[in-house]
Amino acid sequence: MSPGSKKKIKAGMENKHYPAPLASHEDVVNDPSVFWDTLRRFHFVMGTKFMIPVIGGKELDLQVLYVETTNRGGYDKVVAEKKWREVGSVFCFSATTTSASFVLKKHYFSLLYHYEQVHFFKIQGPVSTPAVAFPLGSPSGKTELAIVEYSPEPIRDCPDPSTESSSSFSASGTIEGKFDCGYLVSVQLGSEVLHGVLYHPDQQDLSNSIPQYDGAIVPYTPNRRRRRRRSRRSGDPSYPKPNRSGYNFFFAEKHYKLKSLFPNREREFTKMIGQSWSSLNAEERMVYQNIGLKDKERYKRELKEYKERLKLRQAMEVELSIKAQDVQD
Description:
alpha+beta, DNA polymerase, domain 1, 3 domains, two-stranded antiparallel sheet, extended
């Protein structure tokens, strides 16, 4: 664990002890109302902040996240075996939702890790720390972000009168995501929270594209071009339709039924469907998982046939091209 992470955990949890479980693990898994009630009470007792995260414009179903993670052995095991992508597959995030694994890990650590220790592992006494550190460290082992120096003067397009007189000042920041050239960050400036990009200014390609920003933080605008994943199928109608997971089929079936029953409550469907999925027993869930496996086999078969047709078409085009060249000669 990085030194910065250890200090934050010690500062927030020093001399604290876990309370007794507010309910059994089986109860919080099977009854959503028990889960939400005990989770809120747990954070109140621990004196920690609790709020429901929003991902892709929808509230994250923390009970589904808790169930899927504990089914795989808990936070430490999921991190060690790198199964966050597998956990995230049940949420059906939209194509525009990036870094889902990182975000799920972050929210689980801050909202459910200590709850898991008490209700799943039944640990009592002083609070424990995870075997695998969070936030993620850089490959060199250095802390990725502790203090960000923010200098408003170079940003001539939008000067701030309240800070124009000062050259620079320190602000605490949090990493929200990671990409090739840097990180997506949130920075606390007094009562204001700014979202931006922490990038490496020594990289020529990025500095040339944004010459007016010399500091570490630049305004961040979400890239709307990430939907290009659909272009392959739209460009070639014969390309096979990608397979769906068992949860995707369950989600589609439930969504169709709920839409006819509650047409004005569509924003709540994700949470309702997640709770329905959690309440299924192993046999009921296996029905949809088998459908997902069959669809996966269908996609592999159709993709193989598509590639064979593509090779045959290319071979024919080459042969026709050679014949046309011979005729011209």
